[in-house]
Amino acid sequence: MTLHKEHGQVTGIIWRGPDDLKTYEKLQEYAQQHNLTVSAAAKQLVTRTLNTISK
């Protein structure tokens, strides 16, 4: 699997090692299921999570 930086990506997340790769693959699968880029999916999940824990 090759990881590609997407246009406008500013998170600076570095994916290293087998555990990170598994997480990235889950994120990529989520993105595909929701017709999103990986970057947009990550943003959506982070936003949703932070809004949930901030209440």
Describe this structure in words.
By secondary structure, the protein is mainly alpha-helical. It contains two helices and no strands. It is globular and about 35 Å long. 4% of the residues are buried.
Give a summary of the structure in a few sentences:
With 55 residues, the protein is mainly α. 60% of the residues lie in helices and 0% in strands.
Observed structural traits:
55 residues; mainly alpha; 2 helices
Task: Map the helices and strands.
Elements: H1 17-33, H2 38-53
Helix pairs in contact: 1-2
- What oligomeric assembly is this protein in? single chain
In terms of DSSP E residues, the strand content is under 5%
Radius of gyration: 12 Å
The helix/strand series, from N terminus to C terminus, equals HH
Helix content: 55-70%
Structural class: mainly alpha
- Give the integer mean of the pLDDT values: 83
- Number of helical segments? 2
Ends apart, CA distance between termini: 37 Å
Dominant shape:
globular
- The beta-strand count equals 0
* Main sheet overview: none
Instruction: Point out poorly predicted stretches.
Output: none
